[in-house]
Amino acid sequence: MKHYTRKNYELTESIGFLLNKARNGMLMEVDAALRPLEITGQQMGILLALVRGEVSTPLEISRALGIDTGLTTRMLDKLENKDLVQRRRCEEDRRVVHVLLTQKGTEVARRIPDVTPDVLNRRLEDFTIDEFNELLRLLKKFTGDDLHPG
């Protein structure tokens, strides 16, 4: 089914525009909330994925967060400069680089859940639990994540 046509397409009413607007607004608020931790919302994703043991290489980070490898490299450079992560070559296969949290990175990552839920909850305060669950379901369907549970 085609939901958009040349006749009914309005930029500011399109799903892409509205998703991007929501993302940008939320990211600005998350960045502001994370400022005391000296990280950004994008960097937060890397730290959380590492502390939870979900990823260990730049490629895994890129795939898990849905970002390109160039952006991943730039963010890892910044995190490394802040002494939050370090990169180490795998001894068995020198082509593989592992990303490890430093002690400081682990401490910062563990503080993130004390900060970001407040931002999300402010954005969702006018949603009922059913609306929240429906939004989550629809976003997962839109991104294709409902096809890959867990």
TrEMBL record:
InterPro entries: HTH_MarR-typ, WH-like_DNA-bd_sf, WH_DNA-bd_sf. It comes from the Bacteria. Pfam families: MarR. The keyword Transcription regulation applies. GO terms for molecular function: DNA binding; DNA-binding transcription factor activity. Keywords: DNA-binding, Transcription, Transcription regulation. PANTHER family: TRANSCRIPTIONAL REGULATOR, MARR, TRANSCRIPTIONAL REPRESSOR OF EMRAB OPERON. This is DNA-binding MarR family transcriptional regulator. It comes from Cupriavidus plantarum.
